[in-house]
Amino acid sequence: MIQTIYGPMEEKHLAKGKKTGSFENENEITTWVEYWIEGVLVHRSVDIKLKKGIDIASALQGFK
Amino acid sequence: MANEQSFCVAALVDMMNGKHALGASVIRAGTTKDDYYGALYYTSASRGRTDTVYNTTGEVVHASYTAGGNILTTATAPNSSGNTAFWTPSASLVFTTLTAADFNCLLIYNFTSATKLALSVHTFGNQSVTAGNFTLSMPVNDATTGLIRFSVPV
Question: What is the side-by-side order of every strand in the sheet holding B118-137?
């Protein structure tokens, strides 16, 4: 079941309007999945994989 | 080997574990680690290095989101390698059945502390989620990519 703005729906009923995508830069890898019904976005989930966190030494160099 | 002026790498880990108090500290109820939460903020918010405590200004507001965010899983204690101490939550932070638009920021703060002390601010690409899951997967927990890293310059 997929949660939607109309409540839970079976994925087979949403497959026609399924869209997926991804984005990557130096900070993250992001993937998303969307389900559309008659032009209405009814579900969008996002997964962000962080590549790296914060190095305090590097952050402090910003004050120099 | 000659004497070397340096902050001690082990002290970085000890500071992460609350074992140093160079100024006035707090009375702790025990030796257990604190609980940390992650809260989401709109792209228009102004979270950053000057934050001192958890702040609701600019935080995501929606019936599907609980103010203050979600607890982080912190099963792995701080560690060090080489000249770097590091710490990373041990599991992804997941917000389920969330609806929120135009957010790009996570504030991690100490939920155990009385004032909800701010720890760090992390940004990512602007996001919108509709009745879906928002999952923030953590980087590899090591000296190169760990979420929080303290390094001693050499």
Answer: A18-24, A28-37, A40-50, B118-137, B93-110, B36-42, B70-71
